[in-house]
Structure formats: C-alpha cells, structure tokens
Amino acid sequence: MSNFNIKEKKLTVEEITVLGVPFDRNSSFRRGAALAPQRIREALFSESSNMWTEKSTDLGLMSGWQILDDLEFLNQKMAFEQIESKINELLNRKARVISLGGDHSIIYPIIQSYGKRYSELRAHAGKRRLRK
Q1: At residue 7, what are phi and psi to the nearest 5 degrees?
Q2: pLDDT tens digits, 65-120
Q3: Structural domain of residue 121, as residue ranges?
Q4: I need a labelling partner for 103 at 20 to 30 A (CA). Which of 35, 37, 73, 127 fits?
Q5: What is the domain-level CATH number for residue 97?
Q6: Is 7 among the domain residues?
Q7: Longest dimension (CA), the chain
Q8: Over the stretch 35-60, which tens digit does the pLDDT of each residue have?
C-alpha cells in the first residue's frame, strides 16, 4: 500500500490510470521487483524531481490521469487472477492502464485482459508462430 493517500475516482473516458503491481514471486534470481511501484512513486514525488514534461506540461496540475494504490495480494497463488481482474475492471471503465510492476511474469495476466478487450490483439497473437 502506498503512502500517497490517492483515492480512486470516477474515470473519464480514456483517462490514464497508473496501477502498482508489487509482485516478484516468479523472480528466478533475486527478489525485490515487488518494491518497484513504491520506489517509482517515491522518485516521481520526491523533492529532487518535478512533474513537468519536456513539452512544458505540468502533470501535477493536469487532469486526465490518476495514480492508484498498489494491488494487495491476499493469496500469492491467486495473484495472476487478481491482476487480470483489476486490469479488466479498469479497461471496462475505459481507462488507459500503466502498470508499475514487479517481475516480468505480471505481463501475462495484463496481456490476457487486453486480449479479452481488444480482439485485434487476439487475432495478431494467433497469427504468430514460434520459430524453431
């Protein structure tokens, strides 16, 4: 859970939503990727950085995006189902989701959610073949 006290609000169409996915159970070497969402937020909101873009847009004043608290995994074995469910919920609300995550395995449930929502992803994935 973050310390930013950011509340989930009603999304407008195509609003950008940042979601932390602190999961590193499938790391093959070292743990620690689960700390990434919190560390990224700390850097984003630190005194040594600012919310300005290269195009002189102040993201701190700009509407159209929100940062959600990290997912909390109640059962590590059910984490992928929980990730997929949350992404599905956000996509159904027409959010554009940016995930701050843990290990590489979290991409699987995220892509599953996008594939359910966007048929062109399913069609493209179906045409790909692994080369031997």
Answers
A1: -95, 140
A2: 888 999 999 888 899 999 999 999 999 999 999 999 889 999 999 999 999 988 77
A3: 16-127
A4: 127
A5: 3.40.800.10
A6: no
A7: 51
A8: 999 999 898 888 888 888 899 988 88
